[in-house]
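Internal QA ticket QA-208
Title: Verify multi-chain structure generation after dependency bump
Assignee: T.L.

Test input:
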Amino acid sequence: MKILVVDDFSTMRRIVKNLLRDLGFTNTQEADDGLTALPMLQNGDFDFLVTDWNMPGMTGLDLLKHVRADDKLKTLPVLMVTAEAKRDQIVAAAQAGVNGYVVKPFTAAVLKEKIDKIFERVDG
Amino acid sequence: MAELQIDPQAPSFQQEMKDLAEDLLTKIDGGDLGKIVGVVNNINGVRDRTLYDEIGKLTRGLHNAIKDIKTGDELSEESGMGQASDKLAYVIEMTDKAANRTMDLAEEGMPLNTEIFEGAVDLQEQWQKFLRKELKPNEFRDLTKKIDSYLSKTQVNSKKISSKLSDILMAQDFQDLTGQVIQRVTKLVAEVEDRLVDLVAMAGEVDRITGISHGESYKNEPQPEDDKKIVAEGPQIDTSLEGVVDGQDDVDDLLSSLGF
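Actual output:
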């Protein structure tokens, strides 16, 4: 399973990567915003995208919209891990086709639960 | 720091205008066109003079405000807006460093702990065998050696882990330093806000004299619901506000109500 972790803060990328490694996902790559992430997704065979929302360049929501609009990527499972905590925003992310939404600060258990749930649904 | 005075002469301007207006009415009743024009000119004169005074005060106030912010006596000697951003950049740098240091130490500690754990699992397996009397004499000799080396190894690893844990504690000292910096910048922002409020009051005086009305555009009208754009806003500090979720459980409830 190849995972792309997108966040503009390197510490948060590191935390997410560490948690993913603890969950058994060792094949991870990083990008620091949507603009760098999108070509990586288009050119690489990623199975899963974990993205922040608030980033310079291209935000996570715009990245999600681009992914859903791309024929090759539209079925890619996307988990948003973000500090954005307004109901309107969560609804907007859901409408844009997000598969899971985790608000920061989060725990390892929450991240695991959401990832498990996403793959349960994708596989089932 | 210079206090900004807001137009102490305002009542006298009003009084002057009122007197002149009454005078004008009397002159109009009198019907002498020359005198009427004279009073009108006087009215214009008072208005212009007061306007120049107020604009002068506004300019001076603006100048002082900028100077005060630049010298920033509320902050350190060399502070100002530029320094405030430098200070905040320093906060980011400090927190970044502390976070990475903490993660380095934790990552270094994990394999040491794994060694202790795996060693114990291995020993327990053989110890159970020994208790069940399934261990051959040569295996028992191996076990005693293993126990010996495990005990020394565990002492070394525990010591290393302890020192890493105390380094992790030490890495949290950024909170004190960044906290102080943020407090100072917060103070500066409050200061700037005070100056701006003073300036707005002075500008309001100019508006009053010139009769300028800014209409509705100055008010912060909430946008209609339809036009509200969904943009990133960063962390919500106050989760009790309407429309803000309070933690992951709220998010999950909201999403499940949407059919997730």
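Spot checks passed. Chain B is about 75% helix and 0% strand.
Status: verified.
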